[in-house]
Amino acid sequence: MQKWYEDKRCEEGPVIGGQVCLVRNIAGYPFSEKMEPDQKKNLREEVENAVCAEEAGTGSQFHLIELSDEKDDCCNALIGTQTVPPLMFSRTAGAALLVTDDESVSILINGQEHLCIQVSIAGNRIQEALAKANRIDDLLNRHLTYAYSSRYGYLTASPLYTGTGMSASYLIHLHYLERAQLIAKYQKEYSQFGFTLHGCFRGKNAAPGRVYRLKNRRTLGLSENEVISSLEQLASQLEAQEEKSFRLGGDEEKEYEIDQIYRAYGVLRYARDLDYEETLVYLSYLRAGQLHGILKEETQAPVTAMMFGIHDAVLEKRISRGETMKDSVRRAQYLRDVLPQIDPA
User: Fold this and answer.
1) Best CA proximity match to 30, nearest among 21, 40, 20
2) To 10 degrees, what angle do helices 224-248 and 183-191 make?
3) The whole model's pTM is what?
4) Closest by alpha carbon to 73, among 313, 239, 254?
């Protein structure tokens, strides 16, 4: 089944996709770090029963992953594909994940909080992600009593989520804004509005692949709609500034950029050994080339899916048993298999 990040709408603009995460704790249980094993077991059973009872209403079919029993590479793959928020992740006894085949909906149980409902969606459609997350949340609330205060809102172990218990984010490709060294300006500006702008993919560099996550860091005292509205406005501003940065370059600079795009394609198409971060840099050029019509439409590649797919742990899941291959070599092979053959413009 096609994953949410393989959807063509991920390639339509600087905004790759959006994610909404609802954090909930169940009344009658201590916060996760204070829970005993039998309490975690009972809580997990309650959540699983609630999901099973309302699965039809959610419009999704879930399968269960026992996180405490999974190998490191499987868990790292879940983080690499953004299926679970890294800050919520836990492999303690009783930790489990209910996830759809397309990975667009995941329900993390016994993570850093009791419950984390995450909905991911391709393109600039964060309102749809919020609506789906709220629908699932309401259905589960029929069976689960959430820890809630009329004064503070949803009660959470981390004060970052107290209030609405919601974090919302956009994944945005800011190739030209980074080239213009303007990211720090927006990071400082947006922090004043309660938002962060930081690299999406992990690496030694701040944002390998020039993909950033724009996310709210405040929930207390704000409604969900206020957070989403502000997020949409800031994302639109970044999109406009990214387009402006692309158009500001002179003829010589644009010729250089075209050369870099085709160089990136050549390396990705023919290399036999590729480092993770260098690959993300080349994919950033490739995505910029496709988005601005430098590369022909009929030969465009699913760059977002490739950005997710080149993670070491994700690649590890693709190989057959008994096959041994260095990650960097496997990465190059995967890209050769996916990238289409193109003719120079």
Assistant:
1) 40
2) 160
3) 0.93
4) 313
Q: What is the pLDDT of residues 38-76, one digit of tens each?
A: 999 999 999 999 999 999 998 889 999 988 776 667 788
**C-beta of residue 294 within 8 angstroms of C-beta of residue 64:** no
Higher pLDDT among residues 75 and 256, named by residue? 256
Give yes or no for a contact between 36 and 166, defined as CB atoms under 8 angstroms apart. no
pLDDT number for residue 53: 95
For residue 184, how many C-alpha atoms fall within 13 Å in the half-sphere facing its CB?
A: 4
Question: Do 154 and 147 form a contact (C-beta atoms < 8 A)?
Answer: yes
Task: Tell me what percent of the residues of the chain surpass a pLDDT of 70.
Answer: 95
Instruction: Give the DSSP per-residue string, 303-330.
Output: HHHHHHHTSHHHHHHHSPTT----HHHH
Q: What's the token pair of residue 167?
A: 């974090």
**Both tokens assigned to 165:** 């218990």
- pLDDT digit string, tens, across residues 257-266: 999 999 999 9
Q: Is the CB of residue 282 less than 8 Å from the CB of residue 268?
A: yes
Query: Rounded to an integer, what distance in angstroms lies between the CA atom of residue 212 and that of residue 241?
Result: 14
CA–CA distance, 267 with 331 (Å, rounded to integer):
12
Sign of the alpha-carbon dihedral angle for 297, 19, 283, 309: negative
Q: Are 109 and 44 spatial neighbours (Cβ–Cβ below 8 Å)?
A: yes
> Residue 164 is which amino acid?
T
Q: Mapping DSSP to helix (H, G, I), strand (E, B) and coil, where does residue 124 land?
A: coil
